[in-house]
Write a structure and sequence with these properties.
Distance between the termini: 12 Å
Structural class: alpha+beta
Helix content: 25-40%
Shape: elongated
Radius of gyration: 12 Å
Oligomer: single chain
Number of domains: 1
Strand content: 35-45%
Order of helices and strands: EEEH
Strand order of the largest sheet: 1-2-3
Length: about 60
């Protein structure tokens, strides 16, 4: 699955879930929009908050 979320006004990140091999484990990736500093703690926190909400909504 892939979902684009807002992490700051007018800027976002794509949250991507993939199943890993035979284990079926779900692995998440966060891909920030171009021009955003992926090392910014505030953006990372906002992305993790959105990811937690998405996972809760999906029951994952």
């Amino acid at each position: 699955m892939s979902e684009h979320v807002e992490v700051s006004p007018g800027a976002g990140a794509r949250l991507v879930a993939r199943r890993a091999g035979l284990s079926g484990e779900i692995r998440w990736s966060v891909i920030f929009d171009e021009g955003l500093n992926a090392q910014d703690p505030a953006l990372q926190a906002a992305a993790m908050e959105r990811l937690a909400l998405l996972r809760e909504t999906l029951g994952i």
